[in-house]
Amino acid sequence: MIIYNEQAKTYTLHSKNTTYQMKVWDYGVLLHTYYGPRLRDGDLSCLLRRKDRGFSPNPNEAGGSRTFSLDTFPQEYSTCGVGDYRLPSIELELPSGSRTADLRYVGGEVRRGKYGLEGLPAFHGSAEEWETLSIVLRDAAARVEVELLYGVLEEYDLITRAVRVKNVGGEPVRLCRCASLCLDFIRSDLDLITFNGAHVMERCPSRAPLRPGIQSVDSVRGASSHQHNPFVILCDRDAGEEHGLCYGAMLLYSGNFQAAAEADQFENARLVMGLNPYQFAWTLEPGGAFTAPEAAMVCSPWGFGPMSRQFHRAIRKSLIRDPWADRRKPVLINHWEATEARFTADRLAEIAQEAAALDLELFVMDDGWFGARDDDNAGLGDWFVNEEKLPGGLGALVERVKALGMSFGIWIEPEMVNEDSELYRAHPDWILNVPGRRPSRGRNQLVLDFSRQDVREHIYTQIKTVLSSADISYVKWDMNRSLTEVWSPALPANRQGEVYHRYVLGVYEFAERLHRDFPHILIEGCCGGGGRFDGGMLYYTPQIWCSDNTDAIDRLRIQYGTSFCYPVSTMGAHVSAVPNGTTGRLTPMETRGVVAMHGTFGYEMDLSRCTPEEKEVVRRQVARFKAHYDLIQDGDYYRLSDPFRDGPYTAWEHVSRDKREALVSLVTGPFRGAPPFLSLRVRGLDPALRYRVNGGEIYGGDALMAAGYPLPMFSGDYQSMQLHLTAVDA
Ligand code: DGJ
């Protein structure tokens, strides 16, 4: 519910459990007054105090009054160079060369439904579920209007934000910074949690108290990156899974981003999140407009668990698009870790045959099927079937796989090109490169200039032809390097600051075409694993390969970190062979299956190499995953332990919405002598119900949550266990 109080000049956004408020204040400055647990209606500006503070200037309109400064009051969307010295949200380069921005309130409008963003991913849904607030601010001197957009998804406590900037004057203006979210707090005793890592070790949480000054994470790699995820949390210093106030903020963007938090001189805090201003400058011609990507926030008064569950529900229901919001996704087999790019059609058919016999549903042909591709040195850009490898073409292999009762999927990497390719030989000028420089290689490949429509058109036509040529129901869209030498011949010198963002817009346009032309195809995003795991890509690709690291024990950490924002149904997770290719670690097949069930579930190995006993384990795993599909993919998710704390086990749980069913999963660490007797306290059950565990003994929900379930004595490293709980009371 969004309420405008004309007398108090407050806009109050209520969701089920939270309230957010802003107020038009002196001189039309829009201040932020509150975000936190749900309140009754009221004007929270009583929290803002007027005081003359040294070195905090006053707006000219204040005349001799010295108690109002942009520098001391919480701003709804911070300005630049006109008296607020904290993190700016917007920066304009005016024809005079000045780089300032000063915004004053013009008006606001509340309407039912959710705003959309042309060419950008955004949460969506019906007019019953959503309400929109649009606030217009204006910089009179710059002749620029800024529209702040807010969407409220009441049921899931989700507040989305986006920003449109319009040049309403007669001269071009350059936008040098345009954040999507600015969130001010009248306190700074907060912890900042960010999700960081590297290729093969993504999204590991890092938590630290805010200290005076700016702390930030970002990407300048052209993709949202393995190194830092565009999702952060600010929280009470003692907040935990089930207690404490916390604020999660995600950016729906797949390119350069920045998330910065600042604790200021008066112990207030500000979070600013959006496009990274690094090498960014967008020219707004008279009448021109720019839209910043969407951000989304969830505030939870009860810790991280409830915050994550609200993000999960909102992402599953209102970000993932039809048909995949509700459609069951297949259990897949991918041959990449078994063969890499060197394979024959017979070899693939053999792998598929084994998988079909073990009830897997989708065979994915990974990298290596096109052009002259036998390794990662050649072929990218030549999206036509290598008939030496696949005699009779794609159709012949697809039919062989379909005859096994499986559907067929295929790998692509549309944004890239190898120098050793027909495409590069014909169009060496289609890559991102700076005149006079030689382009850096990454994985021996170059990046196509996806900011260019003609380049995208060529690649799209090729890929469309392939996808239309056979019965294909899944695509894995990969992207295997970071951007360098970002320069495009399609833009004049003074507009090169647009290329990074135009590249991402090009990726989104390409993805949108795929979605539109092949709505039945499930697209799995991938960027060398999880280098582009963000809310932007999830709008187009309902699942994303979580990491190239398939080691079950490392995956416990990667998937744990990922789960703070993103639901299990979006995390590509597969069982692979041991010793693991990345870590060399040995883990039991059973454990690998339990860990991959914390995701979309599938296999990434040659199942014909398995022993009969291992195959039996696979058969049982597949059956178990299918039996619990709805619970795992659509249930409420609980983290039961923190794998970064080196406890004796890592555990998590899926609970049905009616709390009558739950699946608890647990993986132990390395074995140690004289182990203690352990129990596991579960969460989210109905304390008044009794539950049967794995079809046997009955325990009270209250006892399972307060006292715990007595764990067996495990022996050996990395053992696992799953408990299926079903309510026995009516
Ligand atoms: C990186 C991906 O993450 C892998 O799963 C695989 O698809 C390779 N690329 C193929 O080149």
Describe the 3D structure.
The two termini are 36 Å apart. With 730 residues, the protein is of the alpha+beta class. 19% of the residues lie in helices and 30% in strands. The strands form seven sheets. The protein has a nine-stranded antiparallel β-sheet with strand order 6-7-8-9-19-15-14-11-12. The chain has a nine-stranded parallel β-sheet with strand order 28-27-26-25-22-21-20-30-29. Strands 5, 10, 13, 16, 17 and 18 form a six-stranded antiparallel β-sheet that branches. The structure holds (2R,3S,4R,5S)-2-(hydroxymethyl)piperidine-3,4,5-triol. The site of (2R,3S,4R,5S)-2-(hydroxymethyl)piperidine-3,4,5-triol has 11 residues, from loops.
Largest β-sheet summary: 9 strands, antiparallel
What is the strand content?
Answer: 25-35%
Poorly predicted runs: none
What is the count of DSSP helices, taking H or I runs of 4+ residues?
Answer: 13
**Radius of gyration, CA atoms, in whole angstroms:** 27 Å
Mean pLDDT: 97
What is the CA-CA span between the terminal residues? Answer: 36 Å
